């Protein structure tokens, strides 16, 4: 019937209070062709686990900073073209889950610009830096190629008409094939244009 001393106390804290919903949620871009390069930022209760959802599907996780509560989360996989209304939640160490916070609408655009055209028809010139004109998707970046190799030279197609003008760097006498591509704001690149065959002759 001998009885030992009492054990050490065990303190238990009962917590069924969910964290506040994440706040100040923003995205690094509203339109993208690659979700896995997109950053979604915000603030939440410090140290909570942040979960990103597309509907009911979990597509990313992160942890809010232990001091500031700031978080950055990136979708872990690609999704088809379309507009998406993601949400984020915060989960504390007790497993309580916050209300969902909305992420600004994100558009996934993987459609390349239309094939640009070259409207210049000159085939023989004594100008070693020929200028070509054409039409591309409005606002797209037009890149010039010589004999299939990029020159690194670019111009922007008119925001309304799509008309562009681009001038080559100096070329030696000879025969050349000039082509262009168009790249949209999301980085989608068109197929290569029709070619302009041109002969430069200064002799």
Q: Which helices and strands occur, and which strands form pairs?
A:
Layout: E1 23-27, E2 31-32, E3 40-43, E4 49-54, E5 57-63, E6 70-73, E7 82-84, E8 87-91, E9 101-102, E10 106-108, E11 117-118, E12 124-125, E13 131-135, E14 141-146, E15 149-156, E16 163-167, E17 174-183, E18 196-200
Parallel strand pairs: 2-10, 12-18
Antiparallel strand pairs: 1-3, 3-6, 4-5, 4-8, 7-10, 8-9, 11-13, 13-16, 14-15, 14-17, 17-18
Annotation keywords:
41% strand; rod-shaped; 18 strands; five-stranded mixed beta sheet; 203 residues; four-stranded antiparallel beta sheet; mainly beta
Give an overview of the whole structure:
This protein is mostly beta strands and 203 residues long. 0% of the residues lie in helices and 41% in strands. The chain has strands at residues 23-27, 31-32, 40-43, 49-54, 57-63, 70-73, 82-84, 87-91, 101-102, 106-108, 117-118, 124-125, 131-135, 141-146, 149-156, 163-167, 174-183, 196-200. The N and C termini lie far apart (120 Å).
Q: Main beta sheet, described?
A: 5 strands, mixed
Please give the share of residues in helix. under 10%
List unreliable stretches of 5+ residues.
Answer: none
Mean pLDDT: 92
Number of helices, where a helix is a run of at least 4 consecutive DSSP H or I residues? 0
* Structure class: mainly beta
How are the strands of the biggest sheet laid out side by side?
Answer: 12-18-17-14-15
Sheet-strand content, in percent, reads 35-45%
Distance between the termini: 120 Å
Number of strands: 18
The string of secondary-structure elements, in order, is EEEEEEEEEEEEEEEEEE
As a whole number of angstroms, the C-alpha radius of gyration is 29 Å
Give the overall shape, derived from the CA principal axes. Answer: rod-shaped
